[in-house]
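Q: Convert this sequence to structure tokens.
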Amino acid sequence: MTIHLADAAATEDFGRRLAAHIRPGDVVTLTGTLGAGKTSLARGLLAALGLPGEAPSPSFAIVQPYAPPETHIPILHVDLYRLDGPEQLDELGLDEALWDSALVVEWPDRAGPDAWPQALGLTLEMDDDGGRILTARVPSGWEARWPI
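A:
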């Protein structure tokens, strides 16, 4: 499924709408080039989950955790850009976090092709008029919640 997002505000708005459907145990992967809108989408989602202020990019921390009362549900915003390979993923403890948290993962390709097969996979690409094209890979666990 493909959705056109006209600008950065529309990308954040999509993240806000997505927040109404995410729950602990979910993984949402965000793929796209630098500047494609991955962090904007995540910021919209986190804002709708109650995060006051703007969420920082987790580029340097790699994992930025949020939990009640800061957000309605526990959520980890993850940026794997700086990982050298999938073998470093175990050190982050993300699989254990899925017991009670949702994951929003930027640069999921760094985790290897077998990571999170049941994730809602969102790919963002820039279009010629400054908007974004969002393509969704919707797994069976998300079918009842999709489209957003």
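The mean pLDDT is 92.
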